[in-house]
Amino acid sequence: MALFTRTTRNLILKIDEFFDNIEIGLVVFREGIKSYLEKDHEVFLRHIQKLETLESNADKLQRLIENEMITHSILPQHREEVVMLIDALDEIMDVLKKSLDEFNIELPEIPESLNKHFINLTDASLSAAEELMPAARAYFRAPHTVREKLLKVYYYESETDKISRNIKTTIFHEMNDLDLAAKAHLRYIIHHVENISDLAQKAADRLSVMSIKLDM
């Protein structure tokens, strides 16, 4: 059974628009990391500006969605869970912007030999969040399909952990030309990127429980 009825069409449109912002944000973040690794700072800054706009839009939509739900639009027994899901997704957007900001402020020196590894880490971590979005959309229309759509979220989160561990092993065990401070800085930046998949997994856990409750 779909969660919303015809009378909540405007709310569905706002939620879809909110999801759109998250999905575009994931694309912008991926391109932002690539431009940073390519040392194209001008393009990198444009991606930061795009993320700032998307984050602002997402925050506004989040408030509109929550206000409309409180006013009249959604079944009271599901309201709190939906609000928490929207919050979890908005946190992903916040981390996307914060992470690119950290790159811009701290300007980490990433050895060119690690570029491919950072791209792979970024792709895996973002893929976890990207696979989350179809499941989140399905919750409002076909909740019985949610759990099967979440399988790839867990797969990519696990892949992100493996790639992160391999990069850190390479940095600390093989890159003897880097001092400890440089290695620690790279570990900190890696954490920012892999945190996206961790947040996606947490949101997936919440969404899975929510879909089970709807089927009961």
Secondary structure layout:
Blueprint: H1 9-37, H2 41-73, H3 76-106, H4 115-139, H5 146-149, H6 151-174, H7 180-215
Helix pairs in contact: 1-2, 1-3, 1-4, 2-3, 3-7, 4-6, 4-7, 6-7
Describe this structure in words.
By secondary structure, the chain is mainly alpha-helical. The chain has one domain (6-215): Up-down Bundle (Methane Monooxygenase Hydroxylase, Chain G, domain 1). Helix content is 84%, strand content 0%. It has 7 helices and no strands. Helix 1 packs parallel to helix 3 and helix 1 (9-37) packs antiparallel against helix 4 (115-139). It is globular. The termini are close together. The model has no long low-confidence stretch (mean pLDDT 92).
- Number of strand elements: 0
Alpha-carbon Rg, integer? 19 Å
Uncertain residue ranges: none
The termini sit apart by 11 Å
| CATH classification class | Mainly Alpha
* Shape assignment: globular
Largest sheet: none
- The average pLDDT score comes to 92
In CATH terms, what is the fold-level topology? Methane Monooxygenase Hydroxylase, Chain G, domain 1
The number of helical elements comes to 7
Percent in strands: under 5%
Q: What number of structural domains do the residues give? A: 1
CATH architecture: Up-down Bundle
- What share of the residues lie within helices? over 70%
Main features:
216 residues, Methane Monooxygenase Hydroxylase, Chain G, domain 1, 7 helices
